[in-house]
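Notebook, student rotation project (T.W.).
Task set for the rotation: take a protein with a known small-molecule partner, predict the structure of the complex, and write up what can be learned from the model alone. Partner molecule chosen: zinc ion. Sequence and SMILES entered below by T.W., checked by me.
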Amino acid sequence: MADLLELTPHIFLVKLMNATRTNIYLVREAGGDTLIDPGPVGTAPVILGLDRRGEIRLQRILVTHAHPAHAGSAARIMRGTGVRVWVHPDDACYLDGREPPLLPKGRRGQLMAALGRVVDLCPPVFRLEQFQPGVPVGELLPIATPGHTPGHVCLLHAGDGALISGDALLTDGSGPTLSPANLSEDPARARDSLAALRGLSFQHLLPGHGPPILHDAKQRVDAFLSRAS
Ligand SMILES: [Zn+2]
Ligand SMILES: [Zn+2]
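Predicted structure of the complex:
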């Protein structure tokens, strides 16, 4: 079972225990629900169950990046519902089967590689769509923030003033923080690309891991970016 926790008028956290503690978000839109980062492979049965019972009505899946912790269950949910999966062109090859799954760097990546020998961490997605610069998908505008992975994006929901930040910006108990450098493809690029967030207007930060920051997120992100640069 999973509960939906309302964060903003149109965005919910899908409260679903998963091995990588990935935050899974659902955005209610006029045509149905958009799932953002469906999580690692094990989440698919629960999400498909919600859809079958009519508690959610999936119309598409967006992923912030191709790490299996965020996108591993996309293929199975796609097959169970027929919805398409969206990703940035620079991460597409890791989801459509052209390249092996993209694993984090460092020890966590080594552990996942060992697991990957017995479990398919990121089955290929055949109904893949690719973000275009500046073109929203439904209510969500992709903001390229490469570095953690080559095609990492944040997703801005301007109507609700919410920035869904994937692993470009995480949170811990004290506020915004960077993903550990040793998990990222190119940590320096990841840090530099956060400049793209400075000009955005938002009040809520919904990270890929860690508690959402509601209401005063913009000030806290700006303060963090000033300290970090
Ligand atoms: Zn990641
Ligand atoms: Zn992550």
